Amino acid sequence: MRASRWEKIQASSPHAGFLVVAGILVGFWSCAPIGHGTPSLSIDFSSQRHGTRELVQILAQRIDRFRSLRSLARVTYWKTEEKGSIQGAFLVRRPDRLRMETLSLLGAILVLTVDGNEVVGFYPREGTFYRGRASKKNLARYIQIPLELRDLTSLLMGLPPVEIQWPWEGENLSIQRSLSGGGSEVVTFDPDMGIPIGWERVGPDGEVELSAVFSDFISTPVGPFPLRISLESYGSQEERLEIRYQEPEVNVALSASLFVQQKPRHVREYPLDSLGG
To answer: Do residues 202 and 211 touch, judged by C-beta distance below 8 A?
Structure first.
């Protein structure tokens, strides 16, 4: 069998080896580019008009089916006068487990783990180890996405970070609902595939705070999966983030031990709050 990207990275970087679960056979889901997918529900999307309940049911199906992810990725970000990109590797196990490694030719630069309650950032080259609560603020220090952990893991799996709670209102290929703290959120659907391809969170003032677009879908056994996720945040400083997955594996078994880190000996530990920001 031809060596996968995962095998090559594991051989070249001891830190990247953390991402491969011992005992799991290296066999990828069959992921082939597709033009149009077919939703499990029998809905005619050619008419451009659909019931709200049908669209919510499609969304609920996808949220239920996509449970975990393992993938390499290129992450690019834009700020007011700044642009950068990193090569990384992601492990996601919904609803509240996350691991991300930023990679280089010499190994991992950062190993980030989140186990539901705690976030740990380990910098192997610097010999520093940061630990803190898995709060929205602490997550945003490392992943420039201002979302709570459960919403973040959903977004990274190509899912609109919403709760399937009524009441939703629908119009053509979109549904929206009001949020308890004010504002609303909107989910839009592709007219051909019949799956969610966009999400917006609108603040109490009617201005869009966050938006996400899912595109470049590939086929998996549980439905189309987006290779590209584009996110924009608005406010005093607009920011944009794009994730491009490479060879993603969907719904793989991921051990809980992959999402925790023990401090190595002779490494300095600091509270995450000491990073500032």
So the answer is: no
pTM metric for this prediction: 0.81
In a domain, 152, yes or no: yes
Question: What's 224's domain CATH number?
Answer: 2.50.20.10
Answer yes or no: are the C-beta atoms of 175 and 163 closer than 8 Å.
no
Q: Please tell me the distance from the alpha carbon of residue 110 to that of residue 201, in angstroms, as a whole number.
A: 30
**Who's near 12: CB < 8 A, 6+ residues apart?**
105
Q: How far is 47 from 68, CA to CA, in rounded Å?
A: 34
Angle formed at CA 202 by CA 198 and CA 207, multiple of 5 degrees: 115
Q: How many residues does the chain have?
A: 277
Distance (Å, rounded) from C-alpha 179 to C-alpha 229?
24
- For residue 225, what are the domain limits? 5-22+49-271
According to DSSP, the residues that pair with 101 across neighbouring strands are 89, 111
Asked whether residue 44 is domain-assigned, the answer is no
Identify which of 99, 109, 129 has the alpha carbon closest to the alpha carbon of residue 265: 129
Q: What is the pLDDT of residues 58-104, one digit of tens each?
A: 999 999 999 999 999 999 988 877 788 999 999 999 999 999 999 88
Domain assignment of residue 137, yes or no? yes
